Amino acid sequence: MQTTAAQLATPTTKRHDIAAVAGLGMPAALPTSAGQRIAERLRLIETVLGPKRRVVKAGDVIYRSGEAFSHLHVLNSGFFKLISVSADGREQVVGLKFRGDWLGFGAIARNAHACDAVAMDTAEVWSVRYEDLLRACAAHPALMEMVHEAMSSEIMRDRESIMAISTLPADARVVAFLHYWADSLAVRGLRADQFSLRLSRAEIGNYLGLTLETVSRVLSKLVRARLIAFNQRSRRDICIPDFHALEAFVQRRTARDLH
Amino acid sequence: MQTTAAQLATPTTKRHDIAAVAGLGMPAALPTSAGQRIAERLRLIETVLGPKRRVVKAGDVIYRSGEAFSHLHVLNSGFFKLISVSADGREQVVGLKFRGDWLGFGAIARNAHACDAVAMDTAEVWSVRYEDLLRACAAHPALMEMVHEAMSSEIMRDRESIMAISTLPADARVVAFLHYWADSLAVRGLRADQFSLRLSRAEIGNYLGLTLETVSRVLSKLVRARLIAFNQRSRRDICIPDFHALEAFVQRRTARDLH
DNA sequence: CGAACGGTTGAGAGAACTCAACTGAAGTGG
DNA sequence: CCACTTCAGTTGAGTTCTCTCAACCGTTCG
Fold first, then answer.
1. Same-domain pairing of B174 and B141
2. Nearest CA-CA partner of A109 in B79, B157, B95
3. Do A110 and B156 touch (CB under 8 A)?
4. How far, in Å, CA of B191 to CA of A165, rounded?
């Protein structure tokens, strides 16, 4: 695996509490209230900003790498993926977005988008001019706090991705991905034990720093272990009867790796 | 798109876009003004926020994982590393911070810190209560924009890390890391062809998702290829005579990997 | 002085990758 | 309606890159 940056400086105080989950973790909040909070936030955006609403369908792109930055977007419904392309042509899924998430934060600093935002399903997108948002934030502290929170969450999420990719073996990464996806659904009041991964094996692999074959093999192994099941029609519809069991399955490997 | 450190070091030279190992790159800021802009931003923070100043020394920790969130911090000088620890004990260097960078953004959403911020050198840290910052932002649009920009940059940086870790082979990752570090120095008006990596091999490896042995081997290989050199006294003082050559060295592999 | 630490290097092992064949489903066009 | 193609996914075999384990060196520090 990888080196633990052994005791980088200082002995510990208490470091278990929040942070909760391994790898691609879950919001430490209760699903019941988290969903309400998302709805609340959307209501605030709606009333304060009066965003331009738009419905897009799977495959539609709301902004592209290289485009000038002008608007931020909020997902009122649907699923998006963010795909970044490096100068030398490497592609990378760098983010997944769900209801209540903002899109476009990455573009503020450069004043241009550095990734494509692609809908994975029919979705309703709300858009606001960034300048309007700035003005509104100055007038409405609650809105400003909300925006900061959203950016902060994105930073945390990215770090969790980094940790997962750089410290977990392949199967644990896939499980962490499933966990992340399921939690994102659960928090929004959607079924988390049965849902559609809206990504191909290749995209999942890309997101996790694995090849599509490895992803496929891991999923097959999990099916054989009866920890997940697929709809025979569409191999993207997954069923996860017992998340604890799934976690326990990879927990062992992780623990072994640590000692 | 990207700039080599050598060029950034002399602000007047014109930029090539050398498609660099885009992995761990720098913000596409204009080299001519980037350093000035950092100074400007610090001045704005100073005048508008009147931050509490403090000097810390190598190894000091300004916040710890689990601590309640109250302040944000700005680096007026020095170098920091951010170390995240997952629930199951995996450690991960999730960020490196330089003069002008903010620390603590990740804590806004959860209202608690999820990583340790450790000084890698003597540093001057400016601190402001988050609530004060919010108020000041409402009153000073320029400040608010600056904060957003800083958070946006952090998001971009994290994505570049993700891409590097998940798409580049070991040697390219190490080179990308050197590139990132050199650029960060160059942008701040510091020598980029000769500097101290302030991290152990283990920490570099951890940051890049590699083992310390792999990092050591890659560096040795680069030394053998005369692309870098070390101060024999301290093996952390690196010298990079020609960044183009270094980039070209791994470019081949990357290209081959793509086809 | 010996212990601890950071770093280097070698040999062998193993996890993930590459290449390749195969399946089933979906779409195209004659 | 049926070849034909294309695409997503699965699986196997062999390869390779990185990791693991281990020995070793030079510094620093108690």
1. no
2. B157
3. yes
4. 32
Six-digit token pair at B179?
Answer: 């590139």
Residue numbers in A near B158 (CB within 8 A):
155, 158-159, 161-162
Q: Could you give the residue ranges of the DSSP H alpha helices within A52-140?
A: 130-139
Q: Give residue for tokens 């609650």.
A: A142
Q: Are B100 and B27 in contact (CB under 8 A)?
A: no
Domain co-membership, B168 together with B128:
no
Tens-place pLDDT, residues A190-222: 999 999 999 999 999 999 999 999 999 999 999
* DSSP category for residue A18: T
**Contact at 8 Å (CB) between A166 and A2?**
yes
CA B16 – CA B31 distance, rounded (Å): 12
pLDDT in tens, B32-91: 578 889 999 999 999 999 999 999 999 999 999 999 999 999 999 999 999 999 998 899
Strand C contacted by A145 CB (< 7 A): no
Residue with tokens 């999990």: A222
Token representation of residue B127? 């601190």
pTM over 0.70: yes
Answer whether residue A43 is part of any domain: yes
* Statement to judge: residues B141 and B191 lie in one domain: no
Picking from B33, B97, B108, the residue whose alpha carbon sits closest to that of residue A144 is B108
Query: Scanning the structure block, which residue is given the tokens 């499933």?
Result: A178
Contacts of A252 (CB under 8 A, 6+ apart): none
Residue stretches of chain A with pLDDT short of 70: 1-32, 252-259
Judge residue B25's burial from the number of C-beta atoms within 10 Å of its C-beta, 0-12 exposed, 13-18 middle, 19 or more buried. buried
Query: Are both A57 and A162 inside the same structural domain?
Result: no
Q: How many domains does chain B have?
A: 2
Helices B212-224 and B170-187, packing angle to 10 deg: 80
Task: Decide if A48 is inside a domain.
Answer: yes
Q: Is residue B9 part of a domain?
A: no
Residue A148 and residue B131 in contact, taking contact as beta carbons nearer than 8 Å: no
The reply to whether B178 and B74 lie within a common domain is no
Q: How far apart are CA A159 and CA A163, in angstroms?
A: 6
The residues pairing with B230 across neighbouring beta strands, listed in sequence order, are B238
Residues 97..126 of A with a Cβ closer than 8 Å to B: which?
A: 105-110, 114-115
In a domain, B5, yes or no: no
A162 touches chain B (CB under 8 A): yes
- Residues A246 and A166 occupy one common structural domain: yes
CA separation for the pair B106, B118 (Å, rounded) = 15
